[in-house]
Amino acid sequence: MEVTVLEVAPRDGLQNERAIVATADKIRLIERSVEAGLRRIEAVSFVNPQRVPQMADAEAVMAGVPRVPGVSYAGLVFNDRGLDRALATDVDEINVVVVATDTFSRRNQNCTTAEGVQRWSALARRAAASGVRRTVTIAAAFGCPFEGEVSAAAVLDLVRRVAAAEPDEIALADTIGVGTPDRVRTLVAGTAALVPGVPVRCHFHNTRNTGYANAVAALEAGAGILDASTGGVGGCPFAPAATGNIATEDLLYLLHRMDIGTGVRAEAVSATGTWLGEVLGSPVPALLGRAGGFPPARPGSQ
């Protein structure tokens, strides 16, 4: 079995950091990720820099990323202005977020969920015309920090609505880390049944220590792409206590011990997590860098 791990540390991982990370360090994070074998990377966010100052240098980051055959760079886009910026940097993919509840959608994107669907549809048409891969992410799919529970029926209805714009991929995001494996199975299997042939991707946070169990449940239910953040850094600046992306290195250890292939070197990602902690000035939440792999690597082994 093979699974794609999509690295989100350069975007979702860093966006919640208060101290601005230098552009050169962002580019180095991406370079190290590519060197470790990661081939899909969400590198930047083309949003209003006043709302997310950490992403103000998106164009500079994209100008410095290594252009390696087989490596695909994604940018988060909310509106036409963001898409204009993204297309000008030659991104390979765009990710457009549609939030599952009106309250969170207004706080996150200043629009209702219905308006978010309309925005996504318009952006998808433009991106398709430009030959750019299109992902739509349903945020707060497993629960909302303001409205509480979000029913599976409501999420699957939203899947049906966003699917009308023919995404290349549909992502289900546990934005505040409240999901559990049973709910994950229901939504992943339900999404796959509604849009057969469209890959299902999942984005989990480990806020309440369920992220890795949810990742396994997603794979069992048919998801083929998992987001993860080197070091386990990140969160949403517009959702209270939305901390703790699942850590790329810890997820890789789990997958590799289950004989699930990724094409990524966990030890290299773990070393990057340690380096990233030094850049940020505090140890990262990931555990592999502290405990090490198993069986322990022999000197000189790869």
Quick overview of this protein structure:
The protein is an alpha/beta fold. The protein contains 12 helices and 8 strands.
The residue-averaged pLDDT reads 95
Radius of gyration: 18 Å
CATH top level is: Alpha Beta
Order of helices and strands: EHHEHEHEHHEHEHEHEHHH
Structural class: alpha/beta
- SS strand fraction: 15-25%
In CATH, the topology is named TIM Barrel
Total count of domains: 1
**Distance from first to last alpha carbon:** 21 Å
Judging from the principal axes of the Cα atoms, what is the shape? globular
InterPro entries: Aldolase_TIM (IPR013785), HMGL (IPR043594), PYR_CT (IPR000891)
EC number: 4.1.3.4
Domain Pyruvate carboxyltransferase: 3-270
GO biological process, one term: L-leucine catabolic process
Could you explain how this protein is built, in words?
The protein is of the alpha/beta class. The chain has twelve helices and eight strands. Strands 1-2-3-4-5-6-7-8 form an eight-stranded parallel beta barrel, surrounded by nine helices. The longest helix has 17 residues. 49% of the residues are buried. The model has no long low-confidence stretch (mean pLDDT 95). It comes from Nocardia otitidiscaviarum. Keywords: Lyase, Metal-binding. It is an enzyme of class 4 (lyase).
